[in-house]
């Protein structure tokens, strides 16, 4: 009950500041948030990152929108916060991943294509403010360049008006031929309302991020001094059924060690991991690898730089 009240107070404060300036998302952005909310393929965003829209009782809202820039609200889930209050870069990139995709790229693209991540990199600025558990943040997303198949986004994270971190997000804009035909071609005028009604009928994933911790979420098994394994489940996946890019960022940060916060991180996606797979995460000399435990195939690679 206490955690519910904390989340409610945090959300009310954030909503009160921005209630008058919330702007409407386009139909594609609304669809992808709706798909994420109840998709049977994955629950990481809504259940653990509190990536839920304000109208559903969550902290996310689009508050500014132009042709090449958006500003949206989000919230740092308590399980992601550091005890020392230093900004947790992996968690911030996890929040940026979904917000810059649905509240950014899906708004910028003429066909509403959110794309899939190619890489996500970021750095905490010098003298960044502390981030308390459950605090509200704002994520600015700017389109640097967009084309038929690729897009590059520049992001900034703010807390109470102070700059916390900067990030870059590269997107590949083709998801799946059938999906793109239904959702991002002229057929979307007929298909999108039908698909939206279907996802609206699904039971939303309840947010549980105020009463858990990283070990309870991922259950990492230490196999070597510098390596651990994680059984990937739907709880770790996005709405399309692959390991959530934000989950990969958080796992990479955890592999780098929790004693020092990260100053910078660059995460690249080579191939996805599905529910049922085993992720093997290892770290050596500032490089983190996430591979398929069964095949050894490289899935994510990250370079990390601890703060001084």
UniProtKB/TrEMBL annotation:
InterPro entries: ACOT13, HotDog_dom_sf. One of its GO terms (molecular function) is fatty acyl-CoA hydrolase activity. The keyword Membrane does not apply. The keyword Zinc does not apply. Keywords: Hydrolase. PANTHER family: ACYL-COENZYME A THIOESTERASE 13, THIOESTERASE SUPERFAMILY MEMBER-RELATED. This is Thioesterase domain-containing protein. It comes from Pelagomonas calceolata.
């Amino acid at each position: 009950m206490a955690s519910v009240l904390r989340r409610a107070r945090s959300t009310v404060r954030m909503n009160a500041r921005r209630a008058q300036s919330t702007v409407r998302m386009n139909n594609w952005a609304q669809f992808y948030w709706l798909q994420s909310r109840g998709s049977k393929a994955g629950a990481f965003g809504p259940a653990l990152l509190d990536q839920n829209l304000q109208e559903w009782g969550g902290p996310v809202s689009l508050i500014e929108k132009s042709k090449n820039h958006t500003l949206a609200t989000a919230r740092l889930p308590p399980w992601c916060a550091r005890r020392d209050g230093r900004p947790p870069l992996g968690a911030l990139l996890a929040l940026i991943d979904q917000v810059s995709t649905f509240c950014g790229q899906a708004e910028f693209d003429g066909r509403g294509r959110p794309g899939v991540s190619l890489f996500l990199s970021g750095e905490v600025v010098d003298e960044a403010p502390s981030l308390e558990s459950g605090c509200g943040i704002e994520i600015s997303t700017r389109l640097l360049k967009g084309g038929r198949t690729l897009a590059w986004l520049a992001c900034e994270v703010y807390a109470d008006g102070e700059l916390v971190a900067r990030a870059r997000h590269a997107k590949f804009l083709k998801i799946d031929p059938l999906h793109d035909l239904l959702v991002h071609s002229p057929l979307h005028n007929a298909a999108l309302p039908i698909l939206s009604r279907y996802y609206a009928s699904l039971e939303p994933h309840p947010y549980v991020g105020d009463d858990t911790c990283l070990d309870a979420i991922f259950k990492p098994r230490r196999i070597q001094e510098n390596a651990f394994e994680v059984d990937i489940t739907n709880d770790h996946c996005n709405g399309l059924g692959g390991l959530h890019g934000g989950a990969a960022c958080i796992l990479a940060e955890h592999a780098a060690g929790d004693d020092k916060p990260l100053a910078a991180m660059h995460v690249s996606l080579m191939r996805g991991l599905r529910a049922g797979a085993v992720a093997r995460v290892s770290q050596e000399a500032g490089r983190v690898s996430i591979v398929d435990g069964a095949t050894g195939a490289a899935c994510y690679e990250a370079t990390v730089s601890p703060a001084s």
